[in-house]
Amino acid sequence: MAETEPDFPQTPMFRAFHADRYARQQTIKEIQAKTGRKLIVYEANLGAPGSSIIEPDIQPFYDLLSRVEKGEDLDLLIQSGGGDIDAAEKMVYMCRSVAKRFRVIVPEYAKSAATLIALASDQVLMGLASELGPIDAQLIGPGPGGAGYQTSAQTFIDEFEKILKEVKDTGKLSPAYLPVLDGVTLGFIGMCRNIAARSKKFAAKWLKKHMLRKQPKKAVSIANNLSNVKKWLSHGVVIDADEASKLGIVVQKLPKEDALWQKIWYLHCCYGTLFKSRPIVKIFESESVSLPFEAAAA
Fold first, then answer.
1. Which of 292, 253, 285 has the alpha carbon at shortest distance from 29?
2. Tens digit of each residue's pLDDT, the chain (298 residues)
3. Domain spans of the chain, in order of start
4. How far is it, in rounded angstroms, from Cα 269 to Cα 137?
5. Using an 8 Å Cβ cutoff, are 53 and 80 in contact?
6. CATH number of the domain at 12-133+238-294, please?
7. Residue 203 contacts residue 220 (beta carbons within 8 Å)
8. How far apart, in whole angstroms, are the C-alpha atoms of residue 59 and residue 63?
9. Contact 157, 194 (CB under 8 A)
10. What angle do CA 169, 173, 176 make, to 5 degrees?
11. How far apart are CA 55 and CA 88, in angstroms?
12. Using an 8 Å Cβ cutoff, are 247 and 225 in contact?
């Protein structure tokens, strides 16, 4: 016999301490009433270290889905700069395993691996301030003088191949390249090729399965386009709702005057205010779940 969940009503003082949370969850309920869909929220504090999508996100994300009935339509409101592609795909599998139709709402910022999550949906809901981004996998490490750097894995491969061609054409290696190549191994080059291919394969796979299941060639074209570092030049370039639509992504763009969008934007602003008042790195929230995670103590 299945156990029933005990009912522990909150005391007045408890509710007072958590008033902001209950206000946000009330807004989530109001959005659900307008859409007829379940809404879950993954909001990251983009300015905080540790805000990237990571494997430990899976447990709280599971909690968000624990009260979503199989076969329900599902909305995921996401604010994220990206992160671990494998963790992002795990979230997609989880959403897809319970949802009949899956939509991603981008109030402001869903970049890199978060863009990949959006591409795995049936539709992306965007507004005036919404942006997606390129999906070229990134390398992060120490650069010249020990300073940190971030660059595209594909860019590294392209530059490495330029050096190889120069050596082939001239028969010698310029000493200027020695500091650049110091420590580079065949294994590292192979890793760069693999992670560059991984994000492209992710995008094509999920676009062909859902959003563009009747247009597989377009799915591959979008995956190639968003991975093209020579086109976008910057990993942080803005791909707004209109640009995303031109690429072939299924986008619904709501005007800022739209009543649904105003509630979505208000909810997003509530999280922004929360991040300014408390050292929270990210929060997972629904009408019944609220899991804020603060930065670890130094």
1. 285
2. 455 555 656 665 565 556 699 999 999 999 999 999 999 999 999 989 999 999 999 999 999 999 999 999 999 999 999 999 999 999 999 999 999 999 999 999 999 999 999 999 999 999 999 999 999 876 666 555 555 566 766 777 777 778 778 778 788 877 777 766 776 777 777 777 777 788 999 999 999 999 999 999 999 999 999 988 888 888 789 999 999 999 999 999 999 999 999 999 999 999 999 999 999 999 999 999 999 999 765 5
3. 12-133+238-294, 138-190
4. 29
5. yes
6. 3.90.226
7. no
8. 7
9. no
10. 125
11. 8
12. yes
What number of other Cβ atoms are within 10 A of residue 218's Cβ? 16
Residues 36 and 74: their CA atoms lie apart, in Å, by 9
**HEC secondary structure over the chain:** CCCCCCCCCCCHHHHHHCHHHHHHHHHHHHHHHHHCCEEEEEEECCCCCCCCECHHHHHHHHHHHCCCCCCEEEEEEEEECCECHHHHHHHHHHHHHHEEEEEEEECCEECCHHHHHHHCCCEEEECCCCEECCCCCEEEEECHHHCEEEEEHHHHHHHHHHHHHHHHHHCCCCHHHHHHHCCCCHHHHHHHHHHHHHHHHHHHHHHHHHHCCCCHHHHHHHHHHHCCHHHHCCCCCCECHHHHHHHCCCEEECCCCCHHHHHHHHHHHHHHHHHHHCCEEEEEECCCCEEEEECCCC
Pair of tokens at residue 134? 């390129």
Residue 298 in tokens: 């130094």
Two structure tokens written together for 204? 């094509």
Tokens 């999906």 correspond to what residue?
135
